[in-house]
Design brief:
heterodimer; A: alpha/beta; Alpha-Beta Plaits; 2 domains; 6-stranded mixed sheet; 4-stranded antiparallel sheet; 11 helices; 14 strands; B: mainly alpha
Amino acid sequence: MNAIEIRDLSKSFRGMYAVDHLNMTVPKGAIYGFIGENGSGKSTTEKLICGHLVPDCGDIKLFGKDYTDPGVRVRVGALIENAGCFPGSSVYQNLRMQTINLGLENPDEEISRVLKIVRMEENANIKFKSCSLGMKQRIGIAMALLGDPALLILDEPINGLDTDGMRIMREILVDITKNYGCTVLISSHILGELEKIATHYGIIRRGRMIMELSAEEMDARAQVFTTLKVDDTEGASSALAKKYSDVRREGDGSIRVYDVDDTEEIVDYLMKSGFVPYEIKKNKIGLEEYYIELMSKKEDA
Amino acid sequence: MSSELQFKSPTFAERLKGMLGVDFYRLFHTPLFYIFLAIAAIIPAMVSAMTMMPGPNGEAATPLYSNVWQIIAASESLYVIRGIADYANMNMVFIFGGIMVSIFIGHDYKSGYVKQLFTTHAKKQDYMMSKSIVCAFAMICMCGTYFIGGTLGGLLAGYSTEVNALSLILAILGKMVMSLGWASLYTLINVIFRRYFGISIASSFFFGTGILIIGAAAIVESIGLPSFFLNIFLYGSSVNACLESSFGTLVICALVSVGWAIIYNVLGSYILSKSDVY
């Protein structure tokens, strides 16, 4: 059973499709990285799943049930755009309201539990408006975590966070999927961060899903390349191009040789050709580069 | 958290209990409610006291009312107002209430909390019903403080206390019962104009003044119907709960209030289910 299954989902605003016959499958227990440029339809899709927007057409199933089923919706936690808290109320009061809304027994225990997960046990009594952006995002996650959610929908939860905030958020997300069996749908522009936690990816463009793949598939598709720095970049790249099919010169003066796993062989060939590299690195294309390349291919098409 | 996923659908009562719980918690934890309770007490007290203040040259004031209770309910059913005395009674609570409901619901949308509510509550009628009930409760409380303020102001101003006590009680109960219909109307208005806070407040104020009853009265008169028919409107029944009230008046108030509350709730739920939350 998949956590989310979307078929042929569309949503338009004033005749313009924000989500255009989208298909999407999020496996149960996954951390699904939802990627796309600004205005590609990520947030609209998330709002549609949460029932905040009314679709033009299409079908959304959550854990095999229709998304309007109250039983399944009560097990969805969401952080979309902001935490959805009353600024004049304290962190505790905001969480208390959500425990009442969800009809939770032992609300104080539940509040302590989620505050502990988001590392905010000491901040329960401060007013929401006094919290920093990072704290507000964590409170939003705490709100979403109340009531044993089976599915968490997080829209750009790491936006605006500093390095430490991102690290904490990353740890929280891994913690809740590993220890609590939650499925997480997370959209983010910070692909480097997403890459560290996602088990699956969905790439959306102009409201359409252009690719869905698991982290393993992503890994398999990711190109290996060796970065070399030599004094005579032009001569060395010409020499390498005679043997290897994909050799590129980068803006920083380095040369990249793609899809060759044996770095030693490259260096050996280069030395025999009369070029001595002073820096050698073996890399793999990351999610961000893969995404940029995919987008540029789509643009060309 | 469980590893085996179970999805138990909450019953209607469980859903409503959750939503009502949040709204009551918010109501009691927001200064807004207490400010409006104070306003509802101060305004009638001020009106009563000011009507008995001497003129600038020390001339005796012409009393606006003949007894204390006319600030609570008009002495007779006057659908079309002739002066301030006909207007200044407990019906003013429905104007204060309208503004309070607009701010209360406006905060839901402005803070984004409405997203939490609609994520976990798939059924939109939960929202409409909860807001209508909680805001009706707030207006009933305002009727209570209005009564205290109006009575104290009237007594201090030296008005007579002579009254048919049963009619007075029935009139107050009638107006309290009408709170449900009014709260439902304001909830509907705020759902319709949820993206425009200013228009929500202005519309609530406009409807709360009962100014539309003038047009309704003209229509009823032109087709030769007795003015009693104006009681089918919220303002009509609210005015009908006067110092001549009987048990019949209270029954009419209850029927009209509940009837409109159902209509407004059905309309509001339909609008919410067919349109985007924001």
